[in-house]
Amino acid sequence: MTTSNRRVFLQRAVASGTLAILGGGGLLRPGLSSAAEWPRHAFDANTIEQVLQTLYGTNVATDSTAIRLKAPRQAENGALVPIEVSTTLPSVTSIAIVVDKNPRPLVGVMAFNGAEPFLSLNIRMGETSNVRALVYSQDRLYARQQVIRVTVSGYGG
Amino acid sequence: MARSTRIKTRQRSGVTEVLCLIDHPMETGQRIDPRTNRVIPAHFIQKLIFEVNGKQVAEADIGTAVAQDPVFVVRVRGTRSGDTIRVKWTDNKGEKGSASTFVA
Q1: Which CATH superfamily is domain A38-152 in?
Q2: Smallest CA–CA separation between B1 and chain A, in Å?
Q3: Does A35 touch chain B if contact means CB atoms closer than 8 Å?
Q4: Do B60 and A112 touch (CB under 8 A)?
Q5: What is the per-residue pLDDT for A41?
Q6: What is the pLDDT of residues B4-16, one digit of tens each?
Q7: Nearest to A131 by CA among A106, A156, A153, A152
Q8: Which residues are CB-contacts of B48 (< 8 A; sequence separation ≥ 6)?
Q9: Residue B39 is part of a domain; what is its CATH number?
Q10: How much is the pTM?
């Protein structure tokens, strides 16, 4: 890490720390810090816009066919829906999965620092919903989405 | 309660695929216990860290929308036979787990 990089990192660390104290979102940049806190604000958010704003500091995501979202069109059981995301986008720092209609849309986010940009998870869905894969690449946010039909809620009721 | 964390690797066209299976209830905090009529408190893994030879290569933050007994897959390029692959996790109640294996 060069001195200037370290300085930028420290500034960001201080800035996000201050925001956290103020109760703000704490602009998290996935993949930037190895000892990052679990992004509580992003997981507590109940709209897509809030999730994007908290996690990436933007609410603009460009649709990209360079993202592959492998998911069923129909899921009998919302308690276990297999999702796989891969991409050919360059320098990917993170991949996230968001379910629009879940009570808490953010499912998870994975930051990469050497591993291939790939994410595979069995997720829980409350009802039929649009599902988005979000990929952060070279300081820009890209998305691919698909509707998954759910017969039985994964939230047990 | 000790939870089982299992890890294994397999080779797939030049990529080492790491599979991790964790026995964990991943309680959403939204289910109601039919016996007591009370909400079952949320209990879920929050953070996972994946390492190759002690160096972190990926980190996952997850919430309650990840299914019970989760399986995680990480793909790594350029590993050598004998490299150590390790996963560590922590949940919202402070429980921890880890497992490691060697690249075949």
Answers
A1: SoxY domain (2.60.40.2470)
A2: 23
A3: no
A4: no
A5: 94
A6: 999 999 999 889 9
A7: A106
A8: B20, B59, B60, B62, B72, B87, B88, B89
A9: 2.60.40.10
A10: 0.85
